[in-house]
Design a protein that fits this description.
globular, mainly alpha, two-stranded antiparallel sheet, two-stranded antiparallel ribbon, 319 residues, disordered N terminus
Length: 319
């Protein structure tokens, strides 16, 4: 179909043919091996879009107007997410009472570690399940990771979200809604507990927004990159808690944990910095305009992604 490229007005010079799912695939954009060239493409695109996407009634008014026009968030989405949040909470309590706590007693884990183990075990279990499902969707079933073009091809206002991707999104929303309660009530209080509330809020905002405006394909890639890394982190914590048991130290568990943390450091850089830049930022900032110049919320969506990227870079120095 032919779409006018002007979000805030008509721009006849930028009519663009957007292929639907029945169109033959267009050649994949090559991932830029030169970071400087990639940054140059992004900067040039940002500057061009800044001049083309002039606000008509002010940035806030235009944002609200576009949100009403492009958002397809429903009451059903909210109810499903809240129901899953309650389910996750109940499931975590059940696993803690019947599995995790009996296990730490059985192995005679040190008291401090015994309090922390159920939290890491729960998160490791959830992220393992979520990451496996994300990999299946993003790499096996859909070509979103290998072909950045496919993230945008076929997009239009209110495009239907495939059921398998929809299930992932409401589950992720449910998990992070549950995490507010988990951090406040069930988790061991830490220095970064306050930051975790901000993390949960940003996660809910980004996941909910991507679902509402139908940017779910790119969001799937983002979830894949992050969840797999979290599996390694929580798994390493669980191994480290196994070091001291019954008043004795078992160095092998610490060695395994240290090996895991080394792998975690490498995968953090690979997934949350390197691939995040090319598969998320470059795709959202540059490739999206080449394929879908009419895409709404260009600056808002990219700003959220760059915020997450900045946090990933900042946290990397503490890994």
């Amino acid at each position: 179909m032919i779409l006018n490229a002007g979000i805030g007005g008509e721009r006849e010079s930028r009519l663009f043919h957007v292929r639907d799912s029945r169109s033959p695939p267009i050649p994949a954009f090559k991932i830029m091996s030169n970071v400087i060239e990639a940054v140059s493409n992004l900067w040039g695109t940002f500057w061009t879009e800044f001049h083309l996407r002039k606000a008509q009634d002010g940035w806030i008014s235009d944002f609200v107007r576009d949100l009403k026009r492009y958002s397809y968030w429903t009451t059903q989405d909210l109810l499903y997410s809240l129901a899953l949040a309650l389910l996750f909470t109940a499931l975590r309590y059940a696993l803690s009472v019947f599995v995790f706590v009996p296990f730490v007693k059985w192995v005679q884990m040190k008291e401090d570690n015994a309090k922390k183990f159920p939290e890491s075990a729960w998160k490791c279990l959830y992220y393992s399940t979520s990451a496996s499902y994300c990999i299946y969707l993003c790499i096996t079933k859909y070509p979103f990771f290998s072909d950045s073009n496919s993230v945008w091809i076929g997009w239009h206002r209110g495009v239907e979200v495939p059921l398998d991707i929809y299930v992932l999104y409401v589950a992720q929303l449910g998990f992070y809604v549950h995490s507010f309660y988990g951090t406040a009530v069930m988790d061991v209080v830490r220095k970064d507990s306050g930051i975790m509330f901000v993390h949960h809020a940003v996660s809910c905002l980004l996941i909910g927004f991507a679902l509402a405006v139908r940017y779910h394909n790119l969001g799937l890639v983002l979830l894949t990159l992050h969840d797999l890394n979290d599996v390694i982190l929580e798994g390493c914590k669980s191994l480290l808690y196994m070091k001291t048991r019954g008043g004795k130290d078992y160095p092998v568990w610490e060695i395994l944990a240290n090996i895991g943390f080394a792998i975690f450091s490498v995968t953090w850089f690979l997934m949350r910095i390197y691939w995040f830049f090319y598969k998320i930022l470059y795709t959202a900032g540059y490739i999206s305009v080449q394929i879908l110049p009419t895409g709404p919320f260009y600056f808002f969506f990219n700003a959220m992604l760059w915020t997450i990227f900045s946090m990933n870079c900042w946290w990397y120095f503490f890994v």
